[in-house]
Amino acid sequence: MIIGTAVARWPGKVPAGRVSDELVSQIDIMATLAEVVDFKLPDNAAEDSHNPLPLWIGATDQSPRKHHIHNTRKGAFAIRSGGWTLIEGKTGYRSLGAQTW
Questions:
Q1: CA–CA dist 75, 55 (Å, integer)
Q2: pTM above 0.90, yes or no
Q3: Which residues contact 3 (CB under 8 A, 6 or more apart)?
Q4: pLDDT tens per residue across span 61-91
């Protein structure tokens, strides 16, 4: 099952056609961009952001991220680990509006 998809295009850096099933997250953007522009993030900034650039350029075949906790709304959590996803909720569904279960 594909949960989400990311697309990266950086001619001369990210090989065209490279495909990976490794786990990355949108919160990794900060660490990745900091690496690209050679900026050292302070220790108290983006603590949960990982840099998947070595994965994207083909320097490794493993993501630095092994697990991911989703918390998009107060009290709504999910965790991904390997091929497993645990959603804390009666159905896993949550719309943008206040829905009663």
A1: 32
A2: no
A3: 80, 85
A4: 888 888 888 876 777 788 888 888 888 766 6
